[in-house]
Amino acid sequence: MDRKIFTDAEVAEVTDFNDIGSFARDGVDHVVGGAIDYPRHWADFAVSQLNPLQLSISAGSLFAGAIVYRNATAAVISVQSYLPIISSDRKYIAILADGAVETVSGNRLVEVDANTEETVSQSLPIAETRKINFTIVQGAASPTPAKPAIPSDRCCIAFVELSNTAIIAIEIFQDLRAKSLYEVEGRMTQAEGAVSDVQSSVKTIKTDILSIYGQLGNIPSPVAFRQLKTDVALIRVKLKLPDAARAYWYDPALLGDAWDAANASWLARIREGIRFPWAGQRDAQLALLSSDNPSLTITGNLALPVWTEETRIEVLGDGGSVNISELTHTVVTAVQKTLSRTVTEYGPTVTICENQAGWGALANQSVGALFTKDGETFQVVADLGPGAPWPGHEIYEVQQVIQRTVTDTYWDYITNEVGLNGSIYGQTFLNAQASIVTSVDLSFKGVGVNGDVHLLILGCYDDGEPNFDNVIAHVVKNVIDLSVGWVKFSMTPTLLDPGKRYAWATVTTGNHSLETVSGNKFAQGSRFLCTDGVWSQPSVDSDFAFRLNCAKFATTRTVVDFQPLTLDSGMTEIRILHAGWQAAGVPVTWRIKNPALPNAQWQSLTLDNADGASDLMGLPPLVQLQAVFIGTTELQPAIVLDANARGVTYRPRGECVAISQSHDFGLSTTSIQTETEFDQFDAAKHAATPKIVIGSTVYTPTSVVVTVDAANAKKRKLLAAFTVPSTTAARYRIDMTSTEVTDVPFVQDVMMTAL
Questions:
Q1: In Å, what is the CA distance from 437 to each residue of 515, 549, 651, 712?
Q2: What is the pTM of this model?
Q3: Three-state SS for 362?
Q4: How do residues 282-299 score in pLDDT, each as one tens digit?
Q5: Which run of H or E residues covers position 601?
Q6: Which one of 335, 460, 635, 710 is at 20 to 30 Å from 252 when CA atoms are compared?
Q7: Cα(366)–Cα(378) distance, rounded to whole angstroms?
Q8: pLDDT tens, 315-352?
């Protein structure tokens, strides 16, 4: 730094005196710029309120690199012009400090004549001062105001909150306050003490790390431990252990019990996985395009290809008879069963899920939408092992087509109890080949004046005894329609499975008798009587005369048009539900045609044609529907066209949000981990974010690790870690989106663990 030097005889010049001030200022600037060097910081200022509309800013300094600006006196600022207009509004203003250089003038005597030394008073620059100017930056007026943004090259001293009448609060902006050496020294002393403690701790930690390193070989990998937790959770489900607080929670998303569908954010479906919800859905009854289609014979609501009747079993009498009301009357409750159900699901959004085998672990739980319509709810009743979670059920599925069928011809899910009062007589018989019974003829030897006759078709136990809890057909013949000779008991066509033993039985209170044949001429069955509604006594000396009449079909292939399936704005998925039967080799095949496609062709909804689901990729609002009956002249499939025969069309939304019920961990934790398994995931179209919900706060993961399945590129696991406030319970949440509603992913299963 410079110093000005004078000698005794030297004549001083004006620049010499100016240099004295410049050298002093430059010396200070060098110190400030070299040692302090705050870019835009303030010091010493205090902002206070003089009155409701005025602020006072005390003397203070502004550091701007190497330059220090200073106000030696307080400044007063009025805020009246910045007040918001509306009484309910508030506003923030920011006080900014900017440096300025000002030249100060003063009157001085100036010599104007050297000879006479005459002087004149003139106004001349006498000093140059660095000062600070204050400016105001306003924020927007609002009931919940925000502070105005501060430019990066400006220095803010304070924020002031204003109402429409006065100053409310003053908030000093400490971020840009210049810290004194005293403050820095205090913080440094604390830091040095902390460093000393750290050094001591590090020495101990080094020793501990060496000990831990020696034990690493005994610690299982995190992957193996997660697999173990998942297996334990699956075992709890399989063993049906009672609910209890656990540090882990697993759900295959088969049932909605663990999910909060009433949550305001809920936007999902639970159906063998977490699925995108429907944006559009239409549920319509399956109906023929032509109600009088000559290709069909409709009995009641059972539709079969057109048929005529032929006798399949005939036993002729020899003149003997048995009075079928001579015994003490018995009251019996017969259980009549119904035909099984079939569901066919088809479309580009039909996606199979590996967790469907988990139904077997949920005995006595509802299958839900798989077989539900108008109060018909069907139950899972046992676990028969892999591939057969439901007894009597068959599930065939490939991508884009799923067929679920109850293979038992007559089943216990929907039954009718029939109260019968009268004597019970009947005849068992062996059904050697698959037959569709249309009527039974009985030979009457005598007819009383009253007493209707009930005729039942029964299944039999393995020992050949009639089973009154397995009634598959029931008809009533009024007494006025009875006569001596052959009497036909017509019924809705009824399928009898091959190689099984069945029985027909009469129940009446009338004084009627049936013709018999002696000597057990009919070797394939026995005449029986039932005295208590439970136990049946076979006859060893005679059989009843009867004829078993079955359907004879005119053709082996029948095509039937149904009313089209429609959905406003288009469909991506079709589901067809109906009752009926499909014996081995005689299927009903459903077909659709999209008339909007050029050269449209009928497309079968079968596993072999799964790729054909691309017909729905264009979101058609209408498709034509056909059923193709394939069979033989003796056997054909059947469809029940009742109110529960449905054709449902769907289109999913492009977003999905699912939230679980709150799970109690049984411990307090600040670290939670979730593992979510996705299927049909395409990173180019789909996005998914697992979240944790505690109370009303939603937490996003601090880290996510994605693992793509080595065997299936569309399957992946998302391992997400969360840091949360200490909690003993949490909810799992998953948010998914898809850019195309014809291609949507789903969540196969979820694991949440408190660490």
A1: 21, 6, 42, 49
A2: 0.64
A3: coil
A4: 999 999 999 888 999 999
A5: none
A6: 710
A7: 6
A8: 999 888 998 886 555 555 666 666 777 888 888 877 77
